[in-house]
Design a protein that fits this description.
about 220 residues, binds iron/sulfur cluster, 6-stranded mixed sheet, Lambda Exonuclease, Chain A, alpha+beta, 6 helices
């Protein structure tokens, strides 16, 4: 038996738990550090450069982002908001602060705007193009809809910064309201777990906490 998880969840926590509860335990309960990687640092630099450009704090983009000048300039003509850290309580009500008590879900939105009654939420992704998981897209759209209950339609866009692709998916408000229950069911086991069972798989090869990487896991 170990202590339960009491912090807020987010998509990457849900994803980690579903991969391996033991990994979740090491990362989010024991909070054992995970080394950064060149790919993570590169992604974070790209996000920062875009945020600077969108907010007008930088006049140009680095060379590896120049093909995004036009789409970003179009985005700038909308009434957009960039880089928002959002916190929601268990009723999916947006809270003022990402760290305030009662935050149940944390979500980050790279950019969003409302036009003609539709909310568009945008996530910038670095690295190879991969169709995002349905869950990742849905959760992004649900969070957008919870933040803007006045809109009836939500478009989730994933901009793949390296490949130049944009993945989009549209939802209606009733669809998103119905989908909430699915995520409540998904995360309930995370808050009920006190065993944090290891589920070894081929993914152990890349796990920071594996025995081969000198970590505390027996696999
Ligand atoms: S090495 Fe494998 S079993 Fe151990 S925590 Fe990592 S993913 Fe889980």
């Amino acid at each position: 038996m170990s202590k339960p998880f009491t912090d807020a969840w987010g998509f990457s926590k849900l994803d980690t738990y579903r991969d391996c509860p033991k990994k979740f335990f090491f990362q989010f309960i024991q909070k054992l550090p995970q080394p950064s990687s060149p790919a993570m640092e590169r992604g974070s630099d790209m996000h920062e450069a875009i945020e600077m450009y969108l907010n007008g704090w930088a006049k140009t983009l680095p060379e590896n982002l120049t093909e995004w000048v036009v789409p970003l300039d179009v985005l700038k003509t909308k009434d957009f908001q960039a880089e928002q850290a959002l916190g929601f309580d268990k009723n999916w009500t947006p809270l003022k602060d990402w760290f305030q008590s009662g935050v149940w879900l944390r979500a980050k939105m790279d950019a969003k705007y409302i036009q003609d009654g539709m909310l568009t939420v945008i996530d910038f992704k670095s690295g190879k193009y991969r169709v995002p998981s349905t869950e990742q897209v849905e959760l992004y759209a649900i969070a957008g809809s919870a933040l803007h209950p006045e809109v009836e339609k939500v478009k989730a866009e994933f901009w793949f910064l390296d490949s130049g692709d944009i993945y989009t998916r549209d939802y209606t408000k009733p669809e998103l309201l119905q989908l909430r229950k699915k995520y409540e069911n998904y995360v309930a086991p995370i808050y009920a777990d006190t065993v944090w069972e290891a589920t070894p798989s081929s993914a152990c090869r890349w796990c920071t906490y594996s025995k081969t990487k000198g970590g505390p896991c027996k696999f």
